[in-house]
Amino acid sequence: MNFEYAAAPESRSVVKIDPEYGHFINGKWVNGSAHFNTINPATEEVLSRIALGTAADVDAAVKAARNAFDKSWSKLSGRERGKYLFRIARIMQERAREFAVLETLDNGKPIRESRDVDVPLSAAHFFYHAGWADKLEYAGVETTTAPHGVVGQIIPWNFPLLMLAWKVAPALATGNTVVLKPAETTSLTALLFAQVCQQAGLPDGVVNIVTGDGSTGSAIVNHPGIDKIAFTGSTEVGKLIARAVAPTNKSLTLELGGKGANIVFGDAAIDETVEGIVNGIFFNQGHVCCAGSRLILQESIADEVLEKLKRRMDKIRVGDPLDKNTDLGAINSAEQLAKIRELTAAGEAEGAGRWSANCALPENGFWFAPTIFTGVTQAHRIAREEIFGPVLSVLTFRTPAEAIEKANNTPFGLSAGIWSEKGSNILWATQQLRAGVIWANTFNKFDPASPFGGYKESGWGREGGRHGLSAYLKGSAK
Ligand code: NAI
Ligand code: MG
Question: Average pLDDT, stretch 176-187?
């Protein structure tokens, strides 16, 4: 018998979207000279027109941030800065529903995730850093407690509001002022955040938001008036930025790509592990830098895990992101969908076995069924490159040493997972794995107190926790 769920749509009426937006500079809305569309990737409906920031817009924002740093923000005590952060956090909570619906409309992620993960975690980052603002001397950081000054921040589209919070909260807590650029496909929640800054009475120019594309980002990176750059996005653009910043005095932190290994030992609790695998790769459509995109299974349990995983994947509900029953929403853009299609086609061409969940995909918008590839070898592109979609590559191992060798055989080093009932297995494996974040018997767990970041091509520096504070203080390594 087929028991279907009734639709449970979240109301769209809680958000008001303007037909066109400008930049938020010096506490005011400034008209843009050119605009581009932002769409709902689940329907392809145009939601609004976003301003394409020019070098002149970036320059105005940097001047406003410098002026605010010199005249107001650097004059405040940590305690006073903390009050603003608390106020921002509380307003984000009050307007949580608005943020969640807007994020889902602009990004395509399920409302269940924007409501229960993105927005509460964003507010939590402001609360956490509000607490540090007047305690920097006690944080035990290996730097001075003096801020850099003006910070340029460039963020991606996979967690638009959350990445803004990861960037803005520590910058303000440590006394810096900010010029931030959201990703071109997901500017709306950053623009709503600008309204929150106004509502909180944040002094003009402390937070400036310039929307736009890579050219706008590049104008931020190359602006001589900026003291520090913080970037989250692709490894390719991260390398460009590292080159641009190298001959300057700017500090730099980079959060880049990943190809996380999720290792399952033969003694793991299989049903819990299957849930963890699903969360590891299908959370946020797999648009997650720390996704567990390489499943590394001990041979003894591989068949059982794969059978249960496929059964579970057939139950993943793909569709309308605003429906509260939806597990997997829309792929963020036509470009990202094309990239996922290209890499999965390469997986088949190179000889891996493809299996996709049996689900109906909506006609409009950008969609990709949850997919796994078995028989993947380390030479395959789908084992080496970041797919950034709901696609899992499965490899197997016989001995623990082989598992570690495969897990570490990647240019990245952001995250890893270990599934085992044995503490000694877990402790041994965590010491061998070259990854910044390692989860044991869980996956994709985030907390503002926990530092996050990578080794190798996954980036430089840490965000969150005490370690993340240092990056926003003078004396931090480049
Ligand atoms: P991207 O790296 O081009 O975009 C990230 C941000 O950088 C955006 O705000 C963009 O406007 C900006 N940007 C682009 N070019 C720039 C430049 N030359 N200088 C300064 N800023 C620049 O990432 P994209 O093209 O959206 O995605 C491509 C791939 O990157 C994805 O398929 C995925 O594999 C990976 N990616 C990884 C992310 C992560 O969190 N690690 C986030 C987004 C993408
Ligand atoms: Mg790009």
Answer: 98
- Residue pair 220/140 in contact (Cβ under 8 Å)? The answer is no
- Whether 174 lines ligand 1, by a CB cut-off of 6 Å, is no
Rounded Cα distance, 68 and 156, in Å = 26
Query: How many angstroms separate the CA atoms of 365 and 367, rounded?
Result: 7
Per-residue pLDDT tens over the stretch 43-99: 999 999 999 999 999 999 999 999 999 999 999 999 999 999 999 999 999 999 999
Phi/psi at 297 (nearest 5 deg)?
-100, 135
**286 CA → ligand 2 middle, Å:** 17
Query: What structural domains and CATH numbers belong to the chain?
Result: 23-256+458-475 (3.40.605.10), 261-447 (3.40.309.10)
CB atoms within 10 A of CB 358: 10
Going across the sheet that includes 353-356, the strands are 353-356, 371-374, 391-397, 294-298, 261-264, 415-419, 437-440
Q: How far is CA 45 from CA 41, 108, 118, 119, in A?
A: 8, 12, 23, 23
Q: Is 335 a catalytic residue?
A: no
Residue nearest to atom 22 of ligand 1 (CA): 214
CB 244 within 8 A of CB 217: no
Q: What is the pLDDT of residues 141-158, one digit of tens each?
A: 878 899 999 999 999 999
Burial of 333 per CB tally in 10 Å (0-12, 13-18, 19+): buried
C-beta 323 within 6 A of ligand 1 = no
Residues 229, 25, 223, CA angle at the centre, nearest 5°? Answer: 35
Strands (DSSP E) along 106-243, which ranges? 150-154, 177-181, 207-209, 228-232
As a whole number of Å, the end-to-end CA separation of the chain is 61
Query: Cα(291)–Cα(386) distance, rounded to whole angstroms?
Result: 9
Q: Is 410 in the pocket of ligand 1 (CB under 6 A)?
A: no
Q: Is 158 in the pocket of ligand 1 (CB under 6 A)?
A: yes
pTM, two decimals, is 0.98
Q: Ligand 1 pocket test: which of 234, 281, 342 has the largest number of ligand atoms within 8 Å of its C-beta?
A: 234
Which ligand sits closest to the CA of 333? 1
Strands 353-356 and 294-298: unpaired
Ligand nearest to the CA of 232: 1
Is the CB of residue 106 less than 8 Å from the CB of residue 186?
yes
Q: Which ligand is nearest to the CA of 240?
A: 1
